[in-house]
UniProtKB/TrEMBL annotation:
<dbReference type="GO" id="GO:0006511">
    <property type="term" value="P:ubiquitin-dependent protein catabolic process"/>
</dbReference>
<dbReference type="InterPro" id="IPR016158">
    <property type="entry name" value="Cullin_homology"/>
</dbReference>
<keyword id="KW-1017">Isopeptide bond</keyword>
<dbReference type="InterPro" id="IPR016159">
    <property type="entry name" value="Cullin_repeat-like_dom_sf"/>
</dbReference>
<feature type="region of interest" description="Disordered">
    <location>
        <begin position="361"/>
        <end position="393"/>
    </location>
</feature>
<dbReference type="InterPro" id="IPR001373">
    <property type="entry name" value="Cullin_N"/>
</dbReference>
<dbReference type="InterPro" id="IPR036317">
    <property type="entry name" value="Cullin_homology_sf"/>
</dbReference>
<dbReference type="InterPro" id="IPR016157">
    <property type="entry name" value="Cullin_CS"/>
</dbReference>
<dbReference type="InterPro" id="IPR036390">
    <property type="entry name" value="WH_DNA-bd_sf"/>
</dbReference>
<dbReference type="InterPro" id="IPR059120">
    <property type="entry name" value="Cullin-like_AB"/>
</dbReference>
<feature type="domain" description="Cullin family profile">
    <location>
        <begin position="445"/>
        <end position="692"/>
    </location>
</feature>
<protein>
    <recommendedName>
        <fullName>Cullin family profile domain-containing protein</fullName>
    </recommendedName>
</protein>
<keyword id="KW-0832">Ubl conjugation</keyword>
<dbReference type="GO" id="GO:0031461">
    <property type="term" value="C:cullin-RING ubiquitin ligase complex"/>
</dbReference>
<dbReference type="InterPro" id="IPR036388">
    <property type="entry name" value="WH-like_DNA-bd_sf"/>
</dbReference>
<dbReference type="GO" id="GO:0031625">
    <property type="term" value="F:ubiquitin protein ligase binding"/>
</dbReference>
<feature type="compositionally biased region" description="Polar residues">
    <location>
        <begin position="361"/>
        <end position="372"/>
    </location>
</feature>
């Protein structure tokens, strides 16, 4: 196998290592001449290889430093003698005169044309310089590698850029002036921006190229990013003039524009400045001009804009101006993460609108004329003179439901604003929630009104609605329940109203009732709904019990038991409202109702049946909550007989059955009826009004005929009663439906509620102390308030009194006086 010949590195020719002075001068002259040709755009005839070799020869002569300095001087001379003259010649006198904003309109066209001419000349000079130095740098590549690396000098390109900075931009435009080209550049660009801000169209690309130049030049030879001329010279001037402009602009907009216009124009300014930085100036300036806008245009003015009379946020909220509110929100959010100014106005307006709803409800509730001072009720008690007469129950109840509906409408309004204008801001949501809670809880009837809202809808409001519509209706109510701080008071009313719906079979849908309980359980916990669920359990057990009793009655063969079809609801006394289960009224013990013989027989039969299964229990009959279907026969004066099936209250049944033993044409007085039935006066009046006064259900006749029932009034069975219906429902006047409590009832409810709260506080204190054994006063108070706050906000003084009561009864003891502390007594 033949071997490959060995390669040798040839030594440089002797001529290339020469260092004679005449060789350097000759070579330099050739090189310098060629460099000038490059600047004058006559480089087409030049040979890059020859120029490179000449520079290479000089470096090999060890004259690289001298070559570097001569090229530097050549470039300086070129810039000083040629380029500078062309640029200064393009600077007209109009560019040198100081311009105030007021002069802009008159001089804009002249100065604008002169400015564009100057910028074009400067742009061309810069681009030519970059192009030529790119070519020259390629020629001097070897020199750069040797000199820049070995002697730590900047490249010839960097040096030439610095020469452009010093010889062009920092040169005086006139021999007798200190104004430099950079000064003219700065003022011209700022003037163009001022024109654009005033609505004129400018040459953005031209300005952008000049900005490129400032971004490509540095204060230092090491070219740190922060030393760019754009950042050190132009940008500070741009930001300063922008600051002044937006100070004036903010004042101008406030004086001439409404809030919505201010926000729209301010938003437009923000967009303009962002585009200006991206397409005219530099993206480096975008965050800085944002700060100027935020401070001068927005932060200093936004509070005043928000509160502008007649056009501010209040007006926008009232008229659902979502676009305007969105702009206000965006501007406020730019300068304040908490949106404090906007939040304050929104909260205030919500409370104001809520208080208007409260006031309207109160006005409806309390309006009406006072009764005559000499009027007496059926019990013979004189009505208080000068005391306001309450509005009809249905009107008060309608007012309560309207209150809830209007709040739900207000909630829907602000939900829409929050979602579409405030971008579902969580901070604002918390503030809106706080405001709703404030005005809702300022109405001391809010719990009662909300319960009446549910009562009305669960009785008839859900009829004809789809499952989704029912679900949405209940969810709306639950939303308001979140705002109610006294949830135990709401539970009291809801339990009372639910009991009437269940016992009088007024619920439109038991599924909806159970769905409501489920939603409340998820919202406020199992403890809240425990009693309500027990009420449903009692009703289910009662259905089974009624069925069992009917089977028992059939098997017994007693014909009297078969005459009365009995349906029983056996209620757990501790789970149902106290007013239903109580045997007292206004502090007085009420005697049990005297049932007719037929009913008493069946009543005793059921008692024997029930107690045989549940030994030790006691049944207390609550006639005020029952209903009855009775068959009535009316014999006309012409002998014609008409029969009707009457659906009445249990008390009304007892009253009507008295007339079975009254001969035709004879009467019973109010006092006689009361004595025979032992029905409480208040209930007896209402039932007699239903039977004898209500126009369509006058089964009885009253003498004298009047709306009021008095002790001496007489009542006759009305044989001439007529109705187009076989089945006639006779409701109890002002009692068959749930209603708004009067002042006396309200005071009684509050008293009962305070008693229940006291018991809850004591139970909480005992639980805590049993677990902790010893606690100081502040710790115990904090834990009690925390535990009970989900149901109600405990009164601090009540908590203190209950602690003292527990100490007196020896559940707790004082273990320290300073600081006060307590111990649990096992």
């Amino acid at each position: 196998m033949a071997m490959r010949a060995r390669q040798k590195i040839r030594a440089p020719r002797r001529g290339l290592t020469a260092n004679k002075t005449d060789d350097f001068d000759t070579t330099w002259n050739v090189l310098a001449s060629s460099l000038r040709e490059i600047h004058t755009k006559n480089a087409s005839t030049l040979s890059f290889e020859e120029l490179y070799r000449n520079a290479y020869r000089i470096v090999l002569m060890t004259r690289g430093d001298e070559l570097y300095e001569r090229v530097k001087q050549l470039e300086k001379d070129w810039l000083d003698n040629d380029v500078q003259k062309r640029i200064t010649a393009a600077i007209s006198s109009s560019l040198l005169l100081a311009k105030e904003p007021a002069d802009m309109q008159d001089q804009s066209n002249e100065r604008r044309a002169a400015g564009e001419k100057f910028l074009n000349v400067l742009k061309e000079a810069w681009e030519d310089h970059q192009l030529c130095m790119g070519m020259i740098t390629d020629v001097l590549m070897y020199m750069d590698r040797v000199i820049s690396t070995d002697h730590r000098k900047p490249s010839i390109y960097v040096t030439a850029m610095a020469l452009f900075r010093d010889s062009i931009l920092r040169s005086a435009v006139r021999s007798d002036s200190k104004t430099t080209v950079a000064d003219v550049l700065e003022s011209t660009v700022l003037f163009m921006i001022q024109l654009e801000r005033a609505g004129h169209v400018i040459e953005r690309p031209l300005i952008r190229h000049c900005i490129y130049m400032l971004e490509g030049l540095y204060e230092t030879i090491t070219e740190e990013e922060s030393s760019k001329l754009y950042l050190t010279v132009f940008e500070p001037a741009f930001l300063e003039t922008s600051k002044t402009f937006y100070q004036t602009e903010g004042r101008r907009l406030l004086e001439m524009a409404d809030a919505a216009t201010f926000c729209r124009l301010a938003t437009n300014r923000i967009t303009e400045e962002k585009e200006r930085c991206r397409y005219t100036l530099s993206t480096l300036t975008e965050p800085k001009i944002k700060d100027v806008l935020d401070e001068e245009l927005i932060r200093k003015n936004i509070a005043e804009v928000i509160n502008l009379e007649g056009t501010g946020v209040r007006n926008m909220l009232d008229h659902d101006r979502l676009d305007g509110l969105r702009n206000v929100y965006d501007l406020n959010a730019r300068v304040d993460k908490t949106k404090a100014a906007l939040t304050k106005v929104v909260q205030k307006r919500i409370v104001e609108m809520g208080q208007e709803i409260n006031s309207s409800s109160i006005a409806t509730e309390t309006s009406g004329s006072a009764p005559k001072s000499n009027e007496k009720d059926a019990s013979g008690e004189k009505k208080a003179a000068g005391k306001e007469k309450e509005k009809p129950v249905n009107q008060q109840t309608v007012s309560a439901i309207k209150w809830v509906d209007e709040i739900l409408g207000l909630k829907k309004k602000f939900d829409n604003i929050w979602e579409n204008a405030f971008l579902s801001d969580q901070g604002l949501q918390g503030s809106i929630t706080k405001s709703f809670a404030e005005f809702i809880n300022s109405n001391n009837r809010s719990s009662e009104y909300l319960s009446l809202f549910f009562d009305e809808n669960l009785k008839k409001g859900i009829k004809g609605k789809t499952e989704n519509e029912v679900d949405a209706l209940l969810d709306n109510g639950i939303t308001l329940l979140r705002y109610v701080k006294d949830k135990d008071l709401f539970e009291t009313y809801y339990k009372k109203h639910l009991s009437r719906r269940l016992l009088m079979k007024r619920s439109a849908s038991m599924d909806a009732e159970r769905q409501m309980i489920s939603k409340m359980k998820m919202e406020v916990g199992n403890q809240f709904t425990q009693r309500l669920e027990s009420m449903f359990k009692d009703m289910a057990i009662s259905d089974d019990l009624t069925s069992s009793y009917k089977d028992h009655a059939l098997q017994s063969g007693d014909p009297d038991q078969k005459r009365v079809d009995l349906e029983i609801n056996v209620l757990t006394s501790t789970m149902w409202p106290m007013e239903i289960m109580s045997s007292t009224r206004d502090g007085e013990v009420q005697l049990p109702c005297a049932f007719p013989k037929e009913i008493e027989t069946v009543k005793q039969s059921f008692e024997q049946f029930y107690l045989s299964k549940h030994n030790g229990r006691k049944l207390s009959w609550q006639a005020s909550m029952g209903t009855a279907d009775i068959r009535a026969t009316f014999t006309r004066s012409n002998g014609k007989v008409q029969r009707h099936e009457l659906n009445v209250s249990t008390f009304a049944m007892v009253i009507l059955m008295l007339f079975n033993d009254v001969p035709a044409g004879e009467s019973l007085t109010f006092e006689e009826i009361q004595a025979r039935t032992r029905i409480p006066d208040h209930d007896l009046i209402r039932n007699l009004q239903s039977l004898a006064v209500a126009p369509k259900t006058r089964v009885l006749k009253k003498e004298p005929m009047s709306k009021d029932v008095k002790p001496t009034d007489k009542f006759y069975f009305n044989q001439d009663f007529q109705s187009p219906f076989m089945k006639v429902r006779i409701g109890v006047v002002s009692g068959g439906a749930n209603k708004v409590e009067n002042q006396d009832q309200r005071k009684e409810t509050e008293k009962k509620m305070n008693d229940e709260r006291g018991a809850s506080i004591e139970a909480a204190v005992v639980r805590i102390m049993k677990q902790r054994k010893t606690l100081n006063h502040s710790q115990l108070m904090n834990e009690v308030l925390t535990q009970l706050s989900a149901r109600f906000i405990p009164d601090v003084n009540m908590v203190k009194r209950r602690i003292e009561s527990l100490i007196d009864r020896e559940y707790l003891e004082r273990v320290s006086e300073d600081p006060p502390a307590y111990g649990y007594i096992a």
